[in-house]
Amino acid sequence: xxxxxxxSGRGPSGIAIVRISGKDTLKICKNLTKLKEINSNEVNYCxxxxxxxxxxxxPEALLLWFRRPNSYTGEDLAEFQVHGSxxxxxxxxxxxxxxxxxxxxxxxxFTKIAFQNDKIDLLKAESIGDLIHAETELQRDQAxxxxxxxxxxxxxxxxxxxxxxxxxxxxxxxxxxxxLPEKILKEVHNSVKLIHKDILKIxxxxxxxxxxxxxxxxxxxxxVNAGKSSLLNLLAKRDVAIxxxxxxxxxxxxxxxxxxxxxxxxxxxxxxxxxxKNEIEKKGISLAxxxxxxxxxxxxxxxxxxxxxxxxxxxxxxxxxxxxxxKSDVQDKQNHKFEADTVLVSVKENKNIDKLIKKIKQKLSKxxxxxxxxxxxxxxxxxxxxxxxKEIDNxxxxxxxxxxxxxxxxxxxxxxxxxxxxGKVDVEEILGSIFKDFCIGx
Length: 442
Fold this sequence. Notes:
Elements: E1 2-6, E2 13-21, H1 25-33, E3 43-50, E4 55-66, E5 77-84, H2 86-97, E6 102-104, H3 109-116, H4 122-133, H5 137-147, H6 150-174, H7 182-203, H8 208-214, E7 216-222, H9 228-236, E8 254-260, E9 263-269, H10 279-294, E10 297-303, H11 311-316, E11 321-326, E12 341-344, H12 353-365, H13 379-397, H14 404-422, H15 428-435
Parallel strand pairs: 1-6, 7-9, 7-10, 10-11, 11-12
Antiparallel strand pairs: 1-2, 2-5, 3-4, 4-5, 8-9
């Protein structure tokens, strides 16, 4: 079956790209363009027709044809570049739907076929999806590294080391009558210990890869009526939260997704901390305290002119906190000192907010172990690595002289779990969840 889809956005636009893949791609291309010869890997200038009535769909268009296996999907593939009006797009898609053995592609189906034809591995397939959905520079940078194969190469290297160690263990089992030097078995044990250490390092990355992909959680907490909701609205550049002179306006948690100078952030405005006056406010304060514990970073907002600060607010302040002394337009000298990064601002006058943004970036960037480290971007990877680590633990605990066959099985399972991350084993059960979030046409 041949598949087709609009790969660019809906019109109107200058150009629209329609993609088709399958064994009859060349035949369909000739049918729609009336070209006798179509050159592969070249731009073919053409017209597109409706074969039923020879009516011109687009008089000036381009056709790119890629012969299998040298294409994105590994099958014959073509891209039609036409004028991007909805009328032209709809007419072309209608004609394609009328061709024999031709159907509209499902979301991610082109990439799924590429994976099935060994053009890409699972990590690259997932990273292509991440690149499509990237909204910040940090997300784009992470996705590009994955597309280029940084993580795949790392995991494949670890897997090959495990396979090599397993081969020595199996040799000892298969040729028990022959003496395998004790030095070899010791080297196997040391090699597996190093792999264990490498995987543990990846797992203990505080979920940074997932946070880059989904967003760092930053919580705005602090005093009532100190300007927390105004700060949220200022950073979001729109009215997200209700702002009022009445203290305790914010009761529930209000969240918004922001791109803060290249960093993906889920910013949460919470209820002000004080002695609650009713049950609803008490629950709001409880939610605020809970959100602050879950956050990657807390911005504690305090009125610079305040004389006394609530004890619960003081407990929140530590070296991983940013203290925002607001209302410097009322009192322009810093009125409080803390053992934490402190920024004196005026949210009302948008004063020193750039310093706050710079401080947020500094705090979040310190969570990175290394720019070149392999980061886990999905819970699926983390689960597989944990399973791999468990099997390696089992291997290292065994007496290899007595339990050699069981030790070999531990390594086999560890290899299988590691291989499933990049797709070296049967992964049919997870394909659907990976490709369902793709765009149609990709």
